[in-house]
């Protein structure tokens, strides 16, 4: 971050120098008046200015997450100042990783902060549903999923989470309805098809989709 700020300061110095040279020469084009070394330095410094450490750390966390290296992904997110990212998104990402590491209480605390930050963000409610599922509180999971769907009905993941919670509550026909709604939003959702098949095979009379 300090390097980026220093680079930006140096870029401004070179721009001011180019402007002065242009004014002295009576020409409009400023940058060509810099010598070759100054132009190369300006190009290098502009690349540094475009680098955002917080964004880089966030994408590095996604790489670790894809590799199921939860602790390293969490360490990347912990290094990001909260003000550098949208708070609910940062909170929900961290909460998910804490849940993966079986740190449920910390995840729940973060999600409460996310709800205070923006209770109208459906992602936060879906994250609460996911955390409650992992904690075995299936009624809370269903309620959180419903809260999220009230804000964003066309999210297949929200209907899927609701379906999982309803299965755990032995409300099988309602679970089928939730999975069917997920498929109506996104027909390319193989997990929903599998759950519908399993519910009919194990709990209901006739297998159907």
Describe the structure.
The protein is mainly α. 76% of the residues lie in helices and 0% in strands. The protein has eleven helices and no strands. It has helices at 2-25, 36-50, 53-66, 70-78, 87-100, 104-117, 122-135, 138-151, 156-168, 172-185, 190-202. Helix 8 (138-151) runs antiparallel to helix 9, helix 9 (156-168) runs antiparallel to helix 10 and helix 10 runs antiparallel to helix 11 (190-202). The model has no long low-confidence stretch (mean pLDDT 81).
Task: Provide key terms for this protein.
single chain; 209 residues; mainly alpha; elongated
Kindly state the number of beta strands.
0
Unreliable runs, pLDDT <50, ≥5 residues?
none
From N to C, what is the helix and strand string?
Answer: HHHHHHHHHHH
The value of Rg in angstroms is: 26 Å
**Largest beta sheet, briefly?**
none
What is the structural class? mainly alpha
Report helical residue fraction. Answer: over 70%
Shape: elongated
β-strand percent reads: under 5%
Query: What is the CA-CA span between the terminal residues?
Result: 54 Å
Number of distinct helices: 11
Mean pLDDT: 81
């Amino acid at each position: 971050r300090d390097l980026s700020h220093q680079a930006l300061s140096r870029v401004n110095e070179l721009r001011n120098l180019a402007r002065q040279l242009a004014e002295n020469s009576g020409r409009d084009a400023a940058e060509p008046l810099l010598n070759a070394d100054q132009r190369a330095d300006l190009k290098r410094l502009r690349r540094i200015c475009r680098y955002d450490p917080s964004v880089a750390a966030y994408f590095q966390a996604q790489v670790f997450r894809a590799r199921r290296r939860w602790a390293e992904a969490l360490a990347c997110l912990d290094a990001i100042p909260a003000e550098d990212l949208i708070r609910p998104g940062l909170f929900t990402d961290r909460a998910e990783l804490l849940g993966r590491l079986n740190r449920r209480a910390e995840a729940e605390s973060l999600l409460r902060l996310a709800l205070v930050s923006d209770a109208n963000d459906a992602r936060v409610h879906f994250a609460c549903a996911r955390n409650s599922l992992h904690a075995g509180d299936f009624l809370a999971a269903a309620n959180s999923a419903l809260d999220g769907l009230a804000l964003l009905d066309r999210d297949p993941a929200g209907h899927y989470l609701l379906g999982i919670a309803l299965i755990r509550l032995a409300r099988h026909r309602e679970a089928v309805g939730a999975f069917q709604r997920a498929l109506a939003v996104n027909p390319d959702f193989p997990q929903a098809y599998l759950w519908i098949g399993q519910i009919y095979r194990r709990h209901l009379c006739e297998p159907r989709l």
